[in-house]
Task: inverse folding
């Protein structure tokens, strides 16, 4: 097997640092339910449907308002929902640019929804310019680890599975990619990712 020619990369938890617990905490403060119940009830099947584009923003916010007994209008709930972003991982962004300068194709595949997409695309637009294409689950109508999500991205960008490395922080997503013939790396940090990519021949011994 030769050196890969493309990297397919997750965003949240890899390129963008996130803390979903912040959403639960903010919604628990708005709820008449015990905090433990709010934490246990989010995310749920409706959240996954929202990530597949099966629910509108209004429908999803109406669902969580009722399910979690939340006080607040849509704008307030949306602000809470988008309070999970901690910032871009500068070391990962730098690593991706080094790959890009070596001619490696960089494509992103992220499980997301219309509200989150609106937030991260504005806040991290400059950092995400490193990617040739960004594919979002709500537009694909499929989410990782579903086979369709990967197949639609591979087809859309003309990526060859055996020549593509998939990077994600969730092992289940990496295993799904490997089942389709991609080389998979579980992200644990920028330094480990750099070592793994060098081992695959995408970077030289100096990390360049």
Result:
């Amino acid at each position: 097997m030769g050196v890969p020619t493309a990297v397919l990369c997750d965003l949240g938890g890899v390129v963008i640092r996130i803390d979903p617990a912040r959403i639960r905490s903010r919604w628990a403060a708005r709820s008449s339910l015990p905090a433990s119940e709010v934490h246990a009830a989010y995310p749920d099947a409706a959240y996954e449907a929202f990530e597949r584009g099966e629910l509108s923003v209004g429908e999803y916010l109406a669902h969580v308002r009722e399910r979690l007994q939340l006080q607040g209008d849509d704008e307030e709930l949306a602000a809470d929902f988008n309070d999970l972003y901690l910032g871009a991982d500068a070391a990962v962004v730098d690593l991706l640019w080094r790959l890009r300068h070596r001619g490696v194709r960089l494509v992103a595949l992220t499980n997301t929804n219309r509200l989150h997409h609106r937030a991260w695309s504005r806040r991290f637009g400059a950092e995400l310019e490193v990617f040739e294409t960004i594919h979002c689950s709500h537009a694909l109508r499929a989410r990782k680890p579903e086979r369709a999500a990967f197949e639609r991205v591979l087809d859309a960008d003309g990526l060859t599975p055996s020549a593509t490395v998939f990077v994600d922080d969730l092992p289940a997503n990496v295993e799904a990619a490997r089942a389709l013939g991609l080389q998979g790396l579980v992200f644990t940090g920028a330094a480990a990712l750099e070592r793994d990519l060098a081992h695959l021949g995408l970077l030289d011994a100096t990390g360049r």
